[in-house]
Structures are given as C-alpha cells and as structure tokens.
Input
Amino acid sequence: MGGYLIRRLAQSVVILLGVTVITFALLYALPADPARMIAGRSATADTVARIRSELGLDQSLPVQYARYLGRLLRGNLGRSYAQKIEVTDLLRSRLAATFWLMLGGIAFELLIGLPAGMLSALRRRSAVDSSVMLGAFLGVSAPQFVVGLFLLYWLAYRWGLFPLGGYGTPAHVILPAFALGIAGGGWYARVMRSAMLDVINQDYVRTARAKGLSEPRVILRHAVRNALLPVVSMVGLDIGTFMGGVVVVESVFSWPGIGQLAWQAIQIVDIPVIMGVVVVSALAIVTGNLLADLAYPWLDPKIRYG
Amino acid sequence: MRQRWMGLAVLVGLALLVSPVAPTWGQNRGNAMTVTFKDDISTLDPAIGYDWQNWSIIKSIFDGLMDYEPGTTTLVPHLAESFTVSPDGKTYTFKLRRGVKFHNGREVTAADVRYSLERTLNPKTQSPGAGFFGDIAGVKEFTDGKAKEVSGVKIPDKYTVVFTLSKANAAFLHIMALNFAYVVPKEEIEKAGADFGHKPVGSGAYKVKEWVLGQRLVLVRNSDYFIKGRPYLDEIVFQVGVEPNVAFLKLQRGEVDILGDGVPPAEFTKVMNDTKLRTLVAVGDQLQTGYVTINTQVKPFTDVRVRRALNMAVDKQRIIRIINNRAVPAVQVLPPLMPGYDKEYKGYVFDVAQAKKLLAEAGYPNGFSTVLYANNTDPNPRIAQAIQQDLAAIGVKAELKTLAQSTVIEAGGTKGQAPLVWSGGMAWIADYPDPNDFYWPILSCSSLAQGTWNWAWYCNPRVEKMVEEADAMVQANQAAARDAKYREIYRLVMQDAPWIPIFHEKRYTMHTARMGGPPGLFNDPIHIPVHYTEVRLVQ
Output
C-alpha cells in the first residue's frame, strides 16, 4: 500500500508538471501580446516595450517557464494582468463556493442516478427501464446552459422557490447543484444499470437468494455494494472536475467559483489566472482519482494494491 | 455499508432541502441601488483602470481637476475652482478648491495633483493612460528616467498647479478630466502598495465599504463630499458574476436596479415591444463608431477607387437590422454626439452599380480576393458575414477570419497583415469628447508603428498638418472655428476612404422604476452605464 501510494504520488507530480508545460506553451503560442493588452489601446510602443520587460516577457520561453516554475514551487502563482491582484487571492476567494457546489452536485448525481439505475436494472426491458434510460439520455444531452436558465425561470423567477442565482445560503446551492445532478445523474444511471445487470447474474447473488435472504436484502447488501465500484471511480473523477470549476453552471447561476473565474480569464487572455486555474484543476483531478483508487479496497476486499 | 452510503446521501439531501427558503431575496434596499455585471470588477486604481466597467466606478471614488456637467460633454472645473489658459495655449494654470478632503481626512493640495500625474507617468505603475500626457513638457525625460520630476508641472503654492505644454493641444482640459489624471493620496498608496486598486482611497462621492472578490463591491456615500447634496444614494451594490439573462429576470422581480451589461440581445425585441418594460429603458447616444478598416498599404486597397467602391457596396441598414436596430447608419468618422460632427455630409451612398463601375476603372472588373478579420463574439461574426455578402455582390471575395479579440487587434496592428478589419467589439469609443480622439490614435501618421490601432495604416500628411493646426486653436472663442476645421478634416479623410463607417451604436440602459433623476443620467456620454453620483430614487 505504502509503495503504491508513493508511486501514485510520483506519477501525479509528473502529470502536473506536464500540464504546466503544455498550458504554458499553448498560452504563449497565442498570437496575442499580454504586454499590449495591459498597456491598453492608447499606449505608445515605448510603454508596451517597458511593460514587456517588467513582466519578463522579453525573455525566451524556456527561461520564462523556468521562472514560472520556480515561483510556482514557492506557492506564488503570479499576479492577474487584468485584476492586478495575486492569483492565489483570486483562487482562494472562490474555492469555498466551488467546494460546496461540488458536494451538492455529486449528492444530486447520486440521488438521481443510483435509484434510477437500480430501478432500470431490476425492471429490465420494461416500460420503466426505457423511460428511465430515455430520461438519462435527455439529462446527459440537454445543454446545461438551457437547463440552468429553465430552472431559474420556473423555480426561481416564476414560483419564487429559490433565489435567482448567487451565493451565500444553502438555498442558493440547490438549483446549480440540481442542474449538475441532472446531467451527471444520467451518466450515473447508465453506469449503475449496467453494473447491476452484471452483478445480479453472479453466483454469489444466487447463493444469497438460495440462503433465503429477503429480496431487498439481496439487492442492497449483495448486489448494490458490488455494483458501486464503477460509481466510486466516477465520483472520484467528479470531485476533480467539479473542483476544477464547472464553467457553464457557475456562469448561469452567478456562482462565484473557479469555473466562472476561468471563463472570465480566458476571454481576456489573463495568462497568470488561466495558468492558476489549470494548476488547481489538474491538482483536483489527480487527487480525485487517487481518492477513488484508494476507496476501492475499502469497498471490495478482493482489490489490493501491493 | 448500506447504512453508511444511504445515510450519507439522505443527510446531504435533507440538509439541502430543509434550508430556509426566504420569500424575497433582497427587495428591501432602502436608499441604495444595485447594479449587476457579468464580469468581475478589476482594479479601481485610477492610474490603471481602463475598461468600461471600472471607468465610472473610479469616477465616483476619485476626482480630477476637470469634469463634465452630468449627462453632457460640457467641461466644468471640478477639483479646480478656476483655470486660465495662456494666449499661446501652452500654459494652463489651475486654482484648486480649498477644503476638499480625501476619505482619510487630509486636504487635497497641489502637491497631490503633481504626485498623482507623475505616478501615472512612472513606468513602474504600468498605466495604460500614460500616453495621453505626452504634450506636457518634460514628460519624455521623466519616463526615460533622465529627470526626477516632470518639468512641465509646477506648484507655486499649495492651491495652484501650472502645466506647461511642449505643443498646444485643444483637448488638454479633456485630458485633465481623464481618470488617469485623477488625484490620489500618496500616503495611502504607500500603505497599500500594489493593492491600492483593491483598497482605493480618493476624495470622491463614494467610499469602498466592502469588496468580496467574485461576488460584490459595496460603495457607501462620502458624507464629506465637497459638492453639497451629492451623492443622492447612501449605498451602491455592484453584484458581479451575474449572467445577463438572469440579471434581466432579477430586474423584473425588482431585486436589482440597473443592468450593467444592458438588455440581453435575445430579450431586446420583446422588451421594446412591451409597453411596461419599454418605459424602463433609457435610450441615448454614445461616442462610438463601428467601421471596417481598409488597409491602405495592401494591394489592391492602395488604389483609392477600390476603397471608395467598397464604401458604396455595403448596405448599412441591413447590418443595423442584424443588431435589432440598436444603431444609426454611419457615413463619417465622428459620431453624432461629438463636436465637429458634420450634419450636412452624406458620405458614400449605397450603390452597387456605381461600386462595380469604380472597381472596373481601377482594373478589377471581375473583382478580387481578400480577407476580412472580425471579433468572434456575437453579433460580430454575423455582421462580418453581411459585409462579406455585400462585397461578394461587387465581385470581391472576402475570406472571413473571426478570431479572439486580442488576435484581431494584433493582426490589425501588424504592418501588411489584415486587409480588412470589422472593428465591432473592439473600437472605437472615444476616451474623451473631442474630435482629435478619433484622429491621433486611429487615423494619424504618427500612430503608425507595430501595435497601432490605425488598422487602415492610413497616413495623409496634409490632413495631419490640419489636425495640428486645429489642435492649436485652444481658446474658448475658437471652438466654433475649430469644429468647422474638423468637419473639413474628416471630409478629406472620407475622400481617402480608409474606412467604411458602418454605424453608431445607441445605448439602452434598463433600470427599475424606482430610479430617478434627469433622463440624461442613464445615458451619460462619460459615465457608463449611469452617473453614479447623480442618480437618485424617485421621490
């Protein structure tokens, strides 16, 4: 276990490094000059050149990257070109919001997806099965922007049940989390359905039935627990992707999370902020995957890491 | 195991569902106003802030020597009590008001005026506005580090500032009304360091009460403001990160007062046809022209006949319909609100036959191929497509390149690269209401260098000389003559046809019925979206 953990951590470091190299190269390959964007439209060529050298943008790309990495290792993500503030401050101000939305989103995914998937599997090839799978298909394919506006219009604007976007109270998190849950829940339902179908034909399920256990006990105790394995790795992935920011849902619901920050930064090519978001997202995804992998042996004693 | 999983899920679900659901979400605001924005508010440092969002907020926290009568483009002394201009137009003497205080209680003095300007000019500040002050004597020496002070700024006593210019500039008073010349307290800047933009201290009508990054900025009235009775509101709350469609719903529910990003395009027709909503929209002009630049240094556009032919080929009315008639057609460089706008000038009339004839005369009876660059945010690609179709009708096959804003700006400012650029989403809104702001940065010979905004790469030395003469007409009694001269200048520019002027956008500001004050405040040409110091609640 210890050896496995060390190997996985070493892998993560390599992945993170790779991510910074690629993003750095991509961002600086853009035919947009950050110095000129800071300098504004009325700046003289002199001013632009001065700003370029102040930012170190006149250095070669490898030198710039080495400097960036050096700062990164000391926890310094640089200053936002547009907002003139430390990127770490910007990220810190948005982490809590993203964290709550991640929790809420995953909760709704599970609440919607697991029962739907189980129901579908147990009533296989029935009208229930097809309607659940159609619903899952719709949930997965509906554009989140439209779903979000629809929820806001009816549940918040027309019926006044929820606030019209924003952040602050638990009531604020329900709609955006539900919007995430609709899409993710569709995936969960499909995965849960096929995992359940796999499991209920296994010998140990037959054995459990033969032992005379009640049907709910067979399903919940023996079937579901084993069917949850793929779901766990999906949760692990979702922790990562949601912590990296859900751009569309956060934007529609005025949710002050990482995704909204990323979206704004991309539009104005605020390179330090984009880099910061990418690093945080990559870190979150790597961590989420690691958590999922570590959860497997806990769920299924057959899995062991040597 | 089962219990653990299910228990957790049920707990989370319940926690989310039973949380108190309040019936209203912030309708009771007292004497306060709420404004929504999609994007975060960036820095509020007057030397640095330069986007349409922070520009007016900075104006409500800081003051300059000059300002404008609310709702107009008429200059008035502000921190200055009075000013005089020397006969040669090169010396400006400002007398400061006494007793004006910064938010920290210290009096504003002439030394602060000089300190603030030198701070903007200091390359370390990285001010995007430093270039506006190039006519003040000694600026170059100062920015090059050869002088410790700007020799053209003198403070003979505590309440007097004297500016000496190396070259007369009739727009100098406008330049002193720019945010970049606003007065900041040195001690607060030294205290806050690089974070001054997020901890701004000025002398203006409002002070910052609270700033939660990514969520809201709250301004509170400065009860010691030097203009008695201003501001009217106790508080302004800026909600940021609000999607415009959602902001529109919030406004109809009365939760917010002003749509900072305007009416969402998809709702525009509905709003304007709805008798009730229509009354909440203030319509006005802005100092803006949307145009296609024709690169005068790229073949075949080196031939003026080709450029004129393009001017006759574009159906501007059709393009305006694309944006729901939110503009008026443009025939010249200057927008209608600008001094020097030529009411008589008719420009190039839409005439496909005449355009084809001109192309044939220039040696292109079958047209040619070229490239049209445009910003990739809606509605600009649709506008570019309409232009592309119009050009195709005279045989000009324009390949469309719709790209990110910064990429288009870079292409336009690179010599010989972009033959045609649609300016929408990028240019040009005046920095200050003087006709020379549509010449020096975007049409002058002197602006031609890598990174220029003169995307037509246009240079006519005769015109440039006339502009210099016009800018030397600095006395108040010369204003009419100067406007006339500018009309002549821009007629000459249009004869050279470096642009296809397309339209002048109108401004539509949506606000709740509780907001009041003269209607001009909701379409102030300087303050966008509204004049924060002057708007008030309906009594």
Observations:
- Chain B touches chain A through 66 residues (CB under 8 Å).
- The CA atoms of residues 328 and 485 of chain B lie 24 Å apart.
- The two ends of chain B are 64 Å apart (CA to CA).
- Chain B has 17 helices and 20 strands.
